[in-house]
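tool_call predict_complex ligand=nicotinamide-adenine-dinucleotide
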Amino acid sequence: MKFADQVAIVTGAGRNIGEEISRLLATHGATIAVVDFDAARGEKVAADIIAAGGKAKAFICDVSKEDDLLQCVQDVTAAFGRIDILVNNAAISDNKNMFDLTSAEWNKVLAVSLTAPFILTKAVAKEMIAGGRGGRIVNVSSTTGYYGRSRATAYAAAKGGVASLTRSQAVQLAPHNIRVNAVVPNKIGSPVGKDEFDPTRPVVNLVGRPGVPADLANAVLFLVSEESSFIVGAALFVDGGCSVLMPGES
Ligand SMILES: NC(=O)c1ccc[n+]([C@@H]2O[C@H](COP(=O)([O-])OP(=O)(O)OC[C@H]3O[C@@H](n4cnc5c(N)ncnc54)[C@H](O)[C@@H]3O)[C@@H](O)[C@H]2O)c1
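tool_result ok
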């Protein structure tokens, strides 16, 4: 097993992309700390992993709250004794034009989607450094972070920030043998904040289908594996090639 005896924290693991990342890493032997603020979702994902023969435990945590994040790292360390992998996946979107967006909404989106990866990475990296075994961290950005849009104003700023934060974290944690990379998805499973997956929703990409959570989970698996040991601070686009299309091409 690739990750036997290793422990992975996955935030926003109760649904869609985070759920699939958790399941996939568990099938490769990792013990999963399923982090979500929705207890029912988190407990179900942990129970499903255990029922499938894996190891997991739900940690109920609101990633927009610093105290919750620090307590979560303490609880995971107490439960499992180590942390090897962190996937900063939780995010929310505002879906609003700047004129409709309040400062409170802006702050909330930034807290969940950008500040949490800053706080959690810092806390987890301290544990990784103390453990002396290095580690791997993957931040989930979005193609929205690379483009101007008519809505999702705060979300776009947060996701652009995640890509930038990834590079600084990669530089600062490399001396501790902690590799930090980002994945950059577009249209994977259900839209952010929603349950429903419509496989017929129109997509413009080079593959001709929307992504499924396994597409993103496989990319994360690669970035936390030895096979990617020479890849640091990268942004791996998992978007069916949509971001290389020149405007007007289809
Ligand atoms: N779905 C897409 O098409 C898509 C595209 C680009 C980027 N992404 C990125 O992928 C990641 C996952 O997206 P998704 O579509 O699976 O999201 P989702 O909305 O389906 O799931 C997010 C999970 O995070 C949890 N969560 C939300 N706020 C939280 C908080 N404050 N504390 C703890 N948990 C919280 C939710 O309960 C939920 O289980 C996000 O970073 C998102 O920006 C998704």
